Amino acid sequence: MSVEDALEKIMPGGRALFLAYDQGMEHGPRGFDPKVGNENPEMILKVADKGKFTGVVLLPGDAKKYYDAPYAWETPLILKVNSKSELYQGDDPYSPLLFEKAEDAVDFADGVGATALGYTIYLGSKFEYRMTREFSSLVREAHDRGLPVIAWVYPRSIAWSFLTQDAKRFLSYIGEREAEKLLESVSQLREGLKEGTAFKGQSPSIMTAVSEALLRDCSIEETPTIVAYAASAAARLGADIAKIKYSGDVESFRWAVRCAGRTRVVMSGGPKSGKFLDQVKEVIQAGAAGLAVGRNVWQDPKPLEVAKALREIIWGGAR
Ligand code: FBP
To answer: Where residue 197 falls among pLDDT bands split at 50, 70, 90?
Structure first.
């Protein structure tokens, strides 16, 4: 199969609905619920098939034990080939390739019948260089074997939360009236923050993102500047699909989709609240291909109803 054919298989008509199930490693079992039975990968695979998902994301262990022959699941497998637990948080994140080298990851993917590969890059981490290098090797090996690669691009650094705190401290230090003036626009706020010593030496993207985070009351990784950066980086590194967070509004997400160029975009996750489906509508309006979601589906007592609602938004009821 060619990369193009594999992409059509996981994105029929250019649209995607992926069911993510790597959380047992990323977050541990805290999201599992015995009443729902979602600690069992078989339940997830049944939801994927019955819910007509266009891809199911599994880590190698589950792929081998639950997806590989003799099982005959309909949903194409997206093999996630790097992962980390949440247990150590004392430094910037690094998510290692779970294989000695990219070639071994692709061999394993072929062996278990995967249609695509997934890899997380923590852009902005001080270990970014390791992940961009592993990712680039993976793209080369996977493409040679007809497998597309999806980049989970999560910009993250432990320093960023301190920057936002420092910005808030700076604003309270300069007094209410001065702070109000700065809070009128992103550019004024960015210029004003440059006066605060904590911000010396920060990149223009981070300065803008800190300002956006304060104005929008969101984390730095969810700001329009950083979400568009994630999309742009995924494209430059050769990803076929970029899985990125939502940037908060249609216009800024449309910009992220444009920055991804020929790399297709799917939204990652979504809010764990009633706003979830509205956000999916906005993502589609912005020109994205769809979404990759986990807990909002398999933690729901009626996962197939959520899947149906998502299909209606993504394919307008045609699937
Ligand atoms: P959810 O839909 O459950 O949020 O999953 C999407 C996802 O990208 C998973 O693939 C991954 O395990 C998880 O989010 C990572 O979450 P975090 O943002 O906490 O690193």
So the answer is: low
Ligand 1 atom closest to Cα of residue 57: 10
Atom 6, ligand 1: residue with shortest CA distance: 269
Mean pLDDT of 93-101: 98
Instruction: Look at strands 55-58 and 241-244 and give their pairing.
Output: unpaired
pLDDT in tens, 277-309: 999 999 999 999 999 999 999 999 999 999 999
Which residue's structure tokens are 């996750």? 269
From 42-46, 76-80, 197-201, the region with the lowest mean pLDDT = 197-201
Exposure of 67 in the CB half-sphere (CA atoms within 13 A): 30
The residue whose CA is least distant from atom 16 of ligand 1 is 26
Instruction: Give catalytic status of residue 243 as yes or no.
Output: yes
Q: Which of 21, 80, 243, 245 is catalytic?
A: 243
Is residue 126 part of the annotated active site? The answer reads: no
CA–CA distance, 104 with 125 (Å, rounded to integer):
25
